[in-house]
Amino acid sequence: MIIELLYPDTAMMFGDRGNADYLKACLPEAEFVRTSYTDEPYFVKHKPDLIYMGSMSEKTQKKVIECLMPYKEILRQRIEENVPVLFTNNASEVLFDYIEEEDGTKIPALGLYHLHVKQDLMHRYNCLVKGTYNGMTIVGYRTTFTFAYGDLESHPFVKVVKGTGMNKQSPIEGIHDHNLFATYLLGPFLLLNPDFVQYFLREVLGIKDAKPAYEETIREAYRRRLEEFNDSHTDFYQ
Amino acid sequence: MNTKKTVRFYLALWIAKLSVVAIRLLGRPATNLPGRLAMRICPDFFAVVEKPSYVLGVTGTNGKTTTCNLIEDVLRDQGIGFADNHEGGNIDTGILSALIKNTKLSGKKKKDLAVFEFDERSTVKSFPYIEPDVLLVTNLFRDSYKRNAHVDFIYSVLDKTIPSRTKLILNGEDLISSNLKEGNARVLFGIDTEKHAETPFPNRINDLTDCPVCGTKLEYVYRRYNHLGEAYCPKCGFGTKPFDYAVKKIDYVKNRIAVRHGKEETELKLLGTNLTDVYNTIAAFAALREYGIAAEKIASSFEKLKITETRYKEIKNGEYSSKGILAKGMNPVAISQVLNFIRSEKGNKEIVFMFEDLEVRAESCENVSWIYDVDFEFVNDESLKHVLVVGSRCYDVKARLLMAGIPEKIIDVCPKDADALQHVRYEGIDHWYVLFDITSTKIGWKLEEEIAKRMGGNNA
Fold first, then answer.
1. N or C: which end of chain A has fewer CB within 10 A?
2. Is residue B450 helix, strand or coil?
3. How far is it, in rounded angstroms, from Cα B129 to Cα B95?
4. Does the pLDDT of residue B56 top 90, yes or no?
């Protein structure tokens, strides 16, 4: 099994390195390929078993878009070939049409999904999110300078039950297309959602009988968190 | 911007000052309420209120308060009066509250020198109205993801807000903060000795891997921790510059450091036992020298200073010790530094983690993603005999500890703070470390004291 980590030195902020480490814990036999700015991505000539990219700064987003732009059609092809892809937090935004900065400048992104974001760097938006996907309750935290707009309906991931979706009016969180999962949720996302991890390992990566690592501990953490998320006194908008 | 004192200004001033009296009579802790009130009544207040002639500002991610305290202790010892913002806090309304306190009913300022700690993000609201003459930036690291996002963001905020006339005192070993405001006058401080890594292996996070000028991978000559150290770009020549204030020698046994500045060499008492304390000391020294206090006067004042026990306290009983350490929650770099300190100590250890933010717990559910940027791996060795994780997020932290390779059999969890003491182990342990957040200092200190009563086989 080969897992490609895109730009891990700069695109694993906000604890997202935990997602990569957790994948290692769940898949101890997997080989991890680290792609840096000067590398041709592994997915260009190969079909990795999973491509992962995490949170980054706004400056890094521009660099990543520049690095991936020559390969955007290959990335699109890989997605259509059902290569599993997991992008967390604002890694998702590099897949959109453009990123609009505060002064109105539009930074073209890869254009794989007809969405765009507007940045507001003076206002950081934080909230808890609870939603559903495929019968599972998904939980996580959102912390962004942006909201996404555009074609949110074509490839929805999580249906938001409480909290904020792609924007303040949207009940949709994230993108799910073939085996691509792009979500704004932090936690890290995988560690917070043991049911999703089990589904991801078994159904998406095709590893039968796979179990989440440290299952007892993360399920108890999940149970307690869900209890708090279900409590009507819990402030979702901190 | 109106800077004329109007009737509205005086009304705002008097009501704000009255609020200070009211707060004191109620026995409540001082807050930024006076500043908030004043701005409500008179939106121009910040622009109008008289500012001290000399403002020495301190900002940065870690070490602001400790460095401010050192500066103030020396000024006090030297008989130099100053205004400070400890009571009101370091955001804009806290600075304003300090200015109100420094203003007479007549509207005239009292003290002509201010030592103000500025919250980095809040400089957007403070610096348009109060321009520091000198600004010390201790360092820039990752901090609260919810508020400060990431280092790039805070760097860009400061780079935009710092006034052009402000002289900067910057950490020369921090290639992020030391490049702020290229055009401003500056001096650099740094540690020009013991050039090696402080950590057993590189930290999980390094916010400067590539040259900020040309994007080429930087080459590190040495990396103390995270991105602090000496580095150069092999392509464009960007890199560490010589220090104006350099620590040439550190003696942790005698608690002394030797500082070179120009042709001067000064020996200073070191208050503390680790590298962070050295940085705080040299930073404070540089700020005081830039203000104009002679080196020998600074040194003589330092001799009289003692380590304050607000952030670190040790209780010893023979060969045993119990240590309470304020470990800022949501600040992975600060906590990693504490863990590195614990790693370096000899003897069998127990660590109690109780760094949950109690204020968030009361209303919401804390986002603990930051724990995946903390170097828990540093304490994974044979000397660690027991770990107790306390609080609502104890299972999340346990998962992280398991991922750091810490054996499950030595990890216990305790969701309720009140039950923590009964889960502490004593057999086979020499040193206990209680790490707590700024919101849990009371229970943290209490636990440390209770452990101290029981350590070494004593009955409480």
1. N
2. helix
3. 10
4. yes
The encoded tokens of residue B375 equal 């170097």
Q: Which of B372, B373, B400, B401 is the best mutation test for A, with the most CBs of A within 10 A?
A: B372
How open is the CA angle A187-A191-A195, to the nearest 5 degrees?
120
Q: Which long-range contacts (CB under 8 A, 24 or more apart) does A40-45 make?
A: A40/A71, A41/A4, A41/A6, A41/A68, A41/A71, A41/A75, A42/A2, A42/A4, A43/A4, A43/A71, A43/A74, A43/A75, A43/A78, A43/A83, A44/A71, A44/A74
Region B296-321: what's the mean pLDDT? 89
Q: Which of B360, B399, B403 sits opposite A221 (nearest CB)?
A: B399
Closest alpha carbon within chain A to B374: A15
pLDDT single digits (tens) B181-196: 999 999 999 999 999 8
How big is chain A by its Cα radius of gyration, in Å?
17
Question: B191: which strand partners?
Answer: B247
Confidence of residue B328 (pLDDT cuts 50, 70, 90): confident
CB-based contact B203:B224 (threshold 8 Å) = no
Tell me how far apart the alpha carbons of residues A136 and A154 are, in angstroms, rounded to a whole number. Answer: 20
Q: Which of B213, B259, B204 is nearest to B236 (CA)?
A: B213
DSSP class of residue B218? P
A61: nearest CA partner in chain B: B152
Report pLDDT for B460: 59
Nearest to B162 by CA among B192, B137, B143: B137
B399/A214 CB distance under 8 A: yes
Q: Report d(CA A66, CA A45) in Å as an integer.
A: 19
Q: What is the mean pLDDT of chain B?
A: 94
Please give the structure tokens belonging to residue A91. Answer: 């890694």
Give A18 to chain B, closest Cα distance, Å. Answer: 5
CA distance A112 to A147: 18
List CB contacts (< 8 A) between A121 and chain B. Answer: 153, 156
Q: What is the pTM of this model?
A: 0.93
Q: How far is CA B418 from CA B58, B354, B414, in A?
A: 37, 11, 9
Residue in chain B closest to A226 (alpha carbons) equals B365
Q: DSSP string covering chain A, please?
A: -EEEEESTTTS-BTTTHHHHHHHHHH-TT-EEEEE-TTSPPGGGTS--SEEEE-B--HHHHHHHHHHHGGGHHHHHHHHHTT--EEEEGGGGGGGSSEEE-TTS-EEE---SSSEEEEE-TT--EEEEEEEEETTEEEEEEEEESEEEEE--SSSEEEEEEES--SSTT--EEEEEETTEEEE--BS-HHHH-HHHHHHIIIIIS--TT---TTHHHHHHHHHHHHHHHH-TTS-S--
- Structure tokens, B36: 């908030």
Element (H, E) at B100: helix B92-101
B398 and A217 within 8 Å at the Cβ level: the answer is yes
Nearest-CA distance B364 → chain A (Å): 5
Chain B residue with the nearest C-alpha to that of A223? B395
pLDDT, mean of each 10-residue run, chain A (238 residues): 97 97 97 96 98 97 97 98 98 98 97 97 95 98 97 97 96 98 97 98 95 97 97 92
| B172 backbone dihedrals φ, ψ, rounded to 5° | -65, -15
SS (H, E, C) B404-421: CCCCHHHEEEECCHHHHH
**Contact call for B210 and A16, based on CB within 8 A:** no
